[in-house]
């Protein structure tokens, strides 16, 4: 059976019907249909998250005059794998991987959307002095500079729920990596 549902509300309707408990025409449940519906719902959720992450990144990049990023599923898988590895302790440790990386943690009862996380990183622009290529004393600006790094072309992000109600960990991976010591995020590559 092949089914293509173009609109997210079509997917939701399909899932509601699947989980409504109505048997098929011959009074038996279709084997595996619940698993297929769960996978479809998960894919739709991840696609929505990807759009929110990408949109907010590209708003920040447009405001800084750099080209937009594209979504990279491989980077998103890397981010997801790292976030899941950290979910037991919810530590904001960097993966040490081959990509640029931003990490954010928030409490479970906080009202953080994925876009709001990226917006928080991009607010570090107020701590960045482009004339001296430095952060204000005692302030962070590296999350912002990674978001707007001119040579970075792709991003992939993930969120994982931490164990024992410790909150959520958000990880974004950037390729090519940015934040090279002594270089401005706005310098053109020669």
TrEMBL record:
* Source organism, top-level taxon: Eukaryota
Q: Would you indicate the residue range of the signal peptide?
A: 1-27
Cellular-component GO terms for this entry: extracellular region
Matching entries from InterPro entries are given as:
Allrgn_V5/Tpx1_CS, CAP_dom, CAP_sf, CRISP-related, V5_allergen-like
Keyword annotations of the record:
Pathogenesis-related protein, Plant defense, Signal
Does the record carry Calcium as a key word?
A: no
Against CDD domains, the record matches this protein to: CAP_PR-1
Q: Which residues form the SCP domain?
A: 48-182
**Function summary:** Probably involved in the defense reaction of plants against pathogens.
Family matches, as PANTHER family: CYSTEINE-RICH SECRETORY PROTEIN-RELATED
Protein name per Swiss-Prot or TrEMBL: SCP domain-containing protein
UniProt source species: Microthlaspi erraticum
């Amino acid at each position: 059976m092949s089914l293509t549902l173009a609109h997210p509300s079509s997917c939701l309707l399909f899932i509601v019907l699947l989980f409504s408990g109505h048997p098929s025409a011959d009074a038996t449940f279709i084997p595996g249909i619940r698993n297929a519906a769960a996978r479809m719902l998960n894919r739709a959720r991840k696609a929505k998250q990807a759009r929110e992450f990408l949109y907010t990144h590209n708003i920040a990049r447009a405001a800084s005059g750099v080209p937009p990023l594209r979504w990279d599923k491989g980077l998103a898988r890397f981010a997801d794998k790292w976030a899941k590895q950290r979910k037991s302790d919810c530590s904001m440790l960097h993966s040490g991987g081959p990509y640029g990386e931003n990490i954010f943690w928030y409490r479970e009862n906080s009202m953080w959307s994925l876009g709001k996380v990226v917006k928080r990183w991009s607010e570090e622009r107020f701590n960045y002095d482009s004339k001296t290529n430095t952060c204000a004393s005692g302030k962070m600006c590296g999350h912002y500079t990674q978001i707007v790094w001119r040579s970075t072309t792709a991003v992939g992000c993930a969120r994982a729920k931490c164990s024992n109600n410790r909150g959520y960990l958000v990880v974004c991976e950037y390729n090519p990596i940015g934040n090279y010591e002594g270089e401005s995020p706005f310098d053109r590559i020669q």
